[in-house]
């Protein structure tokens, strides 16, 4: 008997076989769907965390602190009020929940303290530097893999936070320059600093992360460059005009102050130009107006004729008004021209 015939015969006489198979498929499908829903539920309710591994020697306390940096001017500041959470370091591991953090990106700092030092201890530079900065929000999942090096955070791989990686690349670059130029002349250090400032401005101009771009700009000594290149900073703020973080709001205030101050040289320049034009006009008019000493060289009749010449009177009109002959008028005019060193009536009108 053919196999298809046998199968159809079995289905005909044993329908319960099909029912059993359908039921098992139904259960299997529902189980997979239930498992998928459970995984989705647990994933959606998972706690976001900031954690990592660090190998600190026995001179350090086994506690990691996290601080909120509310202002970019507070990068090198430390107080108890800035510390928002602590985590014990167990088997080189530490962990913080991020659920209570603001939804928007903010700047934070991880640090340890030396045994015998208070928790709010900040060591800047050197082998005992004890902190690292990062950017996070309430949904961040960041892992700091701190490998053994001369400093606590000297060789760290920051996972799931490209912004934080860029932030620390900037810091590493600045620290390297400070060390490399330690024994250079003051002029060379100044040139290196100017080159670094320009590099940071170029980075800030192309960076797609607003807070990282702003951080780079802060590190470029921006306050000393605003007056010489205000257009750059106006363009930068225009690019990030929708950013309303406290960091950008504070930066806008500083740029606004500098922009207002920058108008004073322009205003003084315009005022000086106006005064110069006014003085030139006064001097020019005085030069065109004959002095009393020059007019005193003219006789009374010549002064009368000079006044009529300035009014544009002709020789005939002057003759009729002063009741003198035309020849006398011409004689007086020649005398006036000679005494005033002029050659035509036009020059009389210009005086």
TrEMBL record:
GO MF assignments: DNA binding
Classification via Pfam families: GerE
Keyword vocabulary terms for this entry: DNA-binding, Membrane, Transcription, Transcription regulation, Transmembrane, Transmembrane helix
Transmembrane segments annotated in the record for this chain: 263-283
HTH luxR-type domain boundaries: 291-351
Matches recorded under SMART domains: HTH_LUXR
GO BP terms, alphabetized: regulation of DNA-templated transcription
Keyword Transcription: yes
SUPFAM superfamilies (UniProt xref): C-terminal effector domain of the bipartite response regulators (SSF46894)
Name of the protein in question: LuxR family transcriptional regulator
Provenance organism: Maribellus luteus
